[in-house]
Specification:
With about 210 residues, this protein is mainly alpha-helical. It has helices spanning about 25-40, 45-65, 70-75, 75-95, 120-130, 130-160, 165-185, and strands at about 10-15, 110-115.
């Protein structure tokens, strides 16, 4: 039996294969990217906050003139693809993978979103508020994660590897963040669990599979 089989499966599943090697060159590229964004006065935390607010606004606008099923069917795949690219870039930044995808985000990360629920325009915009508890806890964990990131960067400098403990912590942060963004986008009704763990993916019906 899967060790998480007794947990309720969440409709968003995120996984990054553990890398055998992480190069010092790519670590330097990340640091250059951080400096460049810093000069522009932009941080990755700022970009996440923008997505946190923009996704509910987008969903509310799109749901204003159509049904929930129409939104999930027409806009769901496009929004899910955007989240895949966000997850792929975040995985590179977060030292989970050593390369950015060239053509598809699926090259570096595995993200499965099963679209659920019956969102409305009002429920979508309310998620700016209802998502705050999860975002605040994630922000605190992200602060702690910055020290884990620095430790992982140090181990890359020394041995070109990331320890499994640090890797799983950073992967858990990414899993939490993408689940929260999927909730903010009204792709799923299930609130992001306050957990880093992934639950086993259920057998999905063909009518509403991941995009």
């Amino acid at each position: 039996m899967h060790p998480l089989a007794d947990m309720q499966a969440h409709p968003v599943h995120f996984h990054v294969p553990y890398p055998a090697r992480m190069t010092r060159l790519q670590l330097l590229v990340r640091l250059v990217a951080f400096v460049a964004l810093g000069i522009l006065g932009v941080s990755f935390a700022t970009l996440f906050v923008c997505a946190f607010v923009a996704l509910p606004a987008f969903a509310a606008v799109r749901l204003g003139g159509r049904s929930a099923d129409a939104y999930l069917a027409a806009d769901g795949p496009r929004v899910a693809q955007v989240l895949r690219w966000i997850a792929a870039v975040s995985a590179w930044i977060g030292l989970l993978t050593d390369r950015l995808p060239a053509r598809s985000a699926d090259e570096t990360v595995q993200l499965e979103i099963t679209r659920t629920g019956q969102p409305t325009a009002s429920s979508a915009i309310w998620r700016v508020l209802t998502g705050l508890p999860s975002a605040l806890v994630l922000g605190l964990l992200g602060f702690l994660g910055s020290f884990v990131w620095m430790w992982a960067a140090l181990t890359i400098l020394v041995s070109e590897r990331v320890g499994r403990g640090a890797f799983h912590f950073l992967e858990g942060l990414q899993r939490w963040s993408v689940r929260l963004l999927a909730y903010q986008a009204s792709l799923v009704d299930e609130y992001p669990p306050f957990s880093f763990a992934d639950t086993p993916a259920p057998t999905l019906p063909l009518a509403r599979t991941s995009a």
